[in-house]
Structure prediction request, 720 residues.
Amino acid sequence: MNSKNNFFHWIQFTTYGVVMLAIVSFFLPVAIAATNDYQLNQIAQSNNPSITSSGWQQLVANPSNQQQHFIIDTAGQMTLIDSMDNAHVIFNLNATKKTTTEPIQLTAIALHPNFSLRDQLGYNTFYTAHIESLDQQSKVKRIQERSSGFSLTHDAVITQWKFTDASYKKVDLTTKREVLRIAVPDLSIKIQQMAFNPYKKAWNEDFGLLYIALNGQEKWQKPLYSGVILRINPAKFGLRNFTVPSNNPFSNVDSISNELYLLGGQNIKQFIWPDKNKDALLLSHYYQNKSVLTLTTGGDDWRNKAPSTVLYQTDSAIMDLLSYQGRSLPLLRNKLLLLKQTKQHWLIESISLNLAFNQGTLIERESQLVWRFPEQHVNAGSDISITTNVDDELLLINKTAGVVFQLFQENNGEILPAEKNTNAGTLQTDEGSTSYFLLIIFAIVAIGFFMFKRLQFSAKAVVRKQFAQLKLSDSQQQVALYHRHQNTADTIINFSDLVSCEVLLNNHSISTINHTAGHGFDDDKEQGLRALFAKEKITKMVDGKARQISLLLCDSHDKSYTVCLYMRKGSDRITKKTYTVVIDDVVDWCWLIAEKINSKETATRPIKPTIETQAASEQKAQQQMPLHDQAAAIRPTKAERVILSDNSVSTDNTSKNNTSAAKASEAVNKTSGEGHHNSTINTELVNALEKLVNLKQQGFLTQDEFAKAKEKLLQSLLNE
Prediction:
């Protein structure tokens, strides 16, 4: 009957769990999206007009300090923002040039992967990219395309720098080192982005490789100016300021520079690594009058052949792109976020990031509208971009106002209207669906609450959570508490620290013992306690009804300990002892504890309690062991068996064993003397010898083991 009930409850519980998981997985994302909105929280601002008006270009978070961000601008300045209204210009690139015909523009920045790792190559090291007039006197290696069809007028320069200290408020200008120069025909071709693969570790072979995006135009058919990604190792190697990885895809093509990773991308805006387990890049570029997201593993030439691995394309411009891996926006996790601009609003759209890298072509995704930025924070005329902080949380940079925001998910705010974007799929909701989603959420919560209650009040869970037994110490000054199926005490309480003891029947206190007057124990209280237990016993145990007996102990350190001595649910008893035995145990403990903590209010008990000490309990448990366990306990060790084999004489039949036991008993009786103490020893000895004979007869002890055990027994008697 019990097994059938348990099986039924298990099936019911499993069914509820599967149903709830199905409902959550199917409806919860849509329900949350229909009832949640996002909110901008301002985290940094520059009130310095010269900094704000200089035209922010790019922001990167400082991995060594979560409150700090580095910003470069078109005026050649690098600024540190470390709190609200606290901005410092770290250095001005134009001030470091001795002669200049036109201002230098910073276009990109990248921190070394070991930027925050002290004593590692790359610590406090960063790289900047800028564009300046062509310097024919420079001895740094220059990458360029030679042709009589156009002239080269500018250099795109990558420079390495280091900070002087951990405050990051000053750059050591003496550490300046030019890595490479790229000769370009005009200012429209510049380095849009530099980045290290964030998923590569120091032990990876391609760790520390710098990827460089040099944008181009459709009119430029020369490889270097067609929109390219370059890949180099920027570390100095001998006399070379950088090296080229041997596995670069165009290393064996004479007409293409070894540094190139792909070409023909036209106007490249940005690139990211969408999957930490893959080396593929996701490229955002303006290709043949469309904004396109394309996957590439390098080696592509799109000058005469369009990309085949297009993930997404649209007629509207994609202003910024990132893969969100943070925790604050759970609905956007592991999705691509696109920053777009309409005539009236800035908005964010998302794309699923389930990418199949091994396929030759990809199914184009549709984007979903996530949120429109409120007009009071970001107006349509603002210049904004998105990035992430060191925790991968989404940041919005208003370059026009010089403000940095973080995006949070809230349960209030403006709900997105139901509409369809012409260039991408939007999340469709209506007023009637809101009530439907709320009803679904209510059903999910109700099922979850039911399962939680069922689990919380499970009889077995209660027994496992609470202590299962308590034992009196040999000194009778402490009580040890044990968890279920444990032989080692988990907690030991001194009676001097014990403040109170309550007897709980079904979690209701029916008797209290403490230091105050009237809270001791006597025969009347014992009879009243037994009467309550007797009344509970006649109550019918229907399915689902629980019966529990516990002791609640509290000490002087304000700690409480609950010992569950009896638990039964329906027809299934969880604990080992019967109801009657547990009642006797509870009464014995009440007498003992009352005598220890409130002896003045405790009467003399006419019958001695039956509480055993830990030593007596262990001896009793040993006596109740199976015969083969008892034999193992008294069986001599290997060394003893060796000695025994040299000194003992074998006896073959059982009758001789009985005679030997009887003679040993008579010998002990003759040498024991007189008195009650000796008679007690004789009785114990005879019982022990009979026990040995019984084990020998049943085959649990060999003749040698029997002789050795008998010798040890007689020796212990002589010692007494």
